[in-house]
Amino acid sequence: MYLERSGQRLPARVGTHLRATDIVVTGADGSAGIAFVDNSLLSIGPNSVLAIERYAFNSTTHEGAFESSLRKGTLSVVSGKIAKQSPDAMKVKTPSSILGVRGTEFLVRSDD
Amino acid sequence: MRRHDAALIAALVLGGCATPSQDLVVLLPDKEGKVGTVIVQGQKGKTVLNTAYASARTTSEGGVQRGTASQGEVKDVFGSALAAQPPRPISFTLYFESGSDEFTEQSKQEVKRLLAEMARRQAPDITVIGHTDQVGPDPSNDALSLQRAERVKSILAGMGITAERILTAGRGRREPLIPAADGVSEPRNRRVEISVR
Questions:
Q1: Which of A12, B69, B73, B122 could be cross-linked to B55 through a Cys-Cys bond (beta carbons 3.0 to 4.6 Å apart)?
Q2: What distance in Å separates residue A3's CA from the closest CA in chain B?
Q3: Which has the closest alpha carbon to B124: B147, B156, B93?
Q4: Where are the domains of chain A?
Q5: Distance (Å, whole) CA A41 – CA A7
Q6: CATH top-level class of A2-110
Q7: Measured between beta carbons, which residues in chain A are less than 8 angstroms from residue B146?
């Protein structure tokens, strides 16, 4: 597993803090779980590429925006406070579709 | 020349067939059995998933096909992703002795449970969220709730929790634990919640 941040490849390990626009990549026997500050939980299986394209969360009002893109592989999602507050604030994209997330738990596979 | 063009077109079509980008989306029930809603928008169609194990597959023509996924298929395709899910966030609620910086006796026990929960997790991060009662306007309650959260953060940092793993938030009067009318001073709403993820 590794991260791509601003075009650079960085090692990732348990506890690494992500930034919006990071890309998480897993290998053939890898997987990764990510807990976001609004309590959204995302996890990916092997051979997966997940790009965090936009993440904004106002912890006072719970307003925000969360857009991620599964470029390939498998993804599990448990939505959090952002989707609960605003039904159109969370989106998951794949190369061939866009998912509008009203909540709460779902799975996505994208074949490359 | 004509044959050359035909060969090129065939290659393109084959290329298209070799990588039929097919997505699969499956809606799951949550831990309480409740089911949410996901809207799947393909290039040429969309479908709304709102029942347990409802599925959507994109077709090579850009459409979206609705169906139902079996639990076996979910396990086969998504077993690794599901196994990698972080543990569910848990909240602890703390109260202060009135007019003091001291937690109530009950809250001291709650702090012990919080530390035990953090010890169970691989890489816990926490958000300390202050809440107020329904007295006064938003701006002053937002400031007050954040102040309380900051105070609890410094107490927790003093107990050895790494400060960079602690976020603070002031939720003001937006999320009362006990429903109360405007202007009602309800002590159970003046609290600090600690969310562990």
A1: B69
A2: 17
A3: B156
A4: 2-110
A5: 25
A6: mainly beta
A7: 60
